[in-house]
Amino acid sequence: MIGFRAALAATTMLGGLSVASATDLEVTHWWTSGGEAAAVAVFADAFNKTGHNWVDGAIAGGGNARPIIISRISGGDPMGATQLNTGRDAEELVKAGLMTDLTEIAERDGWADFIRPAKLLDSCRYEGRIYCVPVNIHSFQWMWLNRGVFEDNGLEIPKNWNEFVAAAPALREKGVIPLAVGGEAWQINGMAGVFQVALGGVELFRKINVDRDLEAAAGPQMTQVFEAIGTARGMVDDGFVGRAWNDAANMVITGKAGAQIMGDWAQGEFSVAGQKAGEDYDCLPGLGVYPVLDTGGDAFYFPKPADDNPEVVAAQLEMASLLVSKEVQVDFNLKKGSLPIRGDIDLSAANDCMQKGIKILENPDNILPGGEQSWSSDTTGQMEDLWVEFFNDPDMPVEEAQARYVEIIENAD
Asked: What is the dihedral of CA 187, 191, 196, 197, to 10 degrees?
């Protein structure tokens, strides 16, 4: 703690804007698509302007990156900073005392006064101390549609999932893949969560993901979710297995597919392609049925340096403060397609889809927990395995898949 307080004193005396000496910080993350790279460059440029040096350590794919990041930290080879999801990704590392304590910088800057929803900051707390900084609000609860695909083929642009299902056969006849899907486990699992809200409503989602209600997990509304996944299976092309999410997004952008169910980070890809919300593409929060958001997202953690170097800790604290500053929050999230964690900044430049998200967040009843906040990594992995197996196997009975799902919920941690 002595090194931490000395580092905090140094950043405080210098206003958090400069330090006595420049420090290299290796920063690991999995933001490698076009839109993500443009967004992370905002963070890197802002940090470099302080006189420090952002050493980029991008690792493609969250599923690949997360175990590498955790292994390095637990194995005594920590990076200077790392992106992880807001939630339980770093739970064991924090408990093991391997993360820099950010509490005093958070209190100095008043994070609790402007970070919303409050549960994002709560996800960073352990025994009353803060060990990460949320940088955005991401939600999987979105469907993205290419307007031209429907208009050029004489079809009404769907306003909800049922209208999309009705239009799918006509798209097939025109040689358009109705639904672009990436077959990675997290993508299929995320899509299932979207159907859970869109078909079962907020009540079903809360019963299962918050209350762990086994009756709800085994009930008829959840059966409809499995059936909807089966319907979606019939709308994809044969090349979906192993496809990256941004490649699926590109299928929608280029008109090869009509739509994609994917989190709001997909907006970054549309932006890089020069497309405009409401003109080139549309978005349906909650599949146009229940316009709600599950508010997960990304957070930055700062592993303790191996030698407790106070200059490294000072640079970590400076970065933490910078990531939630007003200007950086605006610039980063406009490029990322996510919503800012600050409710006190000007987002007049936000596009139509981001404005929809901002409106949804104004009502606390519309905010649901993200999967990373509800389930451990082990439970999430079991769910991913089940959904992938079910999606890939048209012969698996819904009854069998749902029974296995109930078992996972019953034994979840």
From this structure: 110
C-beta of residue 340 within 8 angstroms of C-beta of residue 377: no
Contact, 52 vs 318, CB < 8 A? yes
Q: Do domains 2-137+296-355 and 142-294+363-410 have the same CATH topology?
A: yes
Q: Residue 363 — very low, low, confident or very high, per pLDDT cuts 50/70/90? A: confident
Q: In this predicted model, what pLDDT tens digit does every residue of 184-209 receive, in sequence order?
A: 999 999 999 999 999 888 899 999 99
Where exactly are the structural domains of the chain?
Answer: 2-137+296-355, 142-294+363-410
What's at 407, amino acid-wise? Answer: E
For the domain spanning 2-137+296-355, the CATH number is: 3.40.190.10
Are the C-beta atoms of 257 and 176 separated by less than 8 Å?
A: yes
Residues 130, 107: Cα–Cα separation, whole Å: 10
Q: For 14-53, what is each residue's pLDDT tens digit?
A: 444 444 579 999 999 999 999 999 999 999 999 999 999 9
Q: Where are the beta strands (DSSP E) in 160-271?
A: 177-179, 257-261
SS3 assignment, position 393: coil
Q: Which two tokens stand for residue 1?
A: 């703690």
Q: Which CATH superfamily is domain 142-294+363-410 in?
A: Periplasmic binding protein-like II (3.40.190.10)
Q: Dump pLDDT digits (tens) for 266-300.
A: 998 999 999 999 999 999 999 999 888 888 889 99
Continuous H helices in 115-184: 118-122, 147-152, 161-173
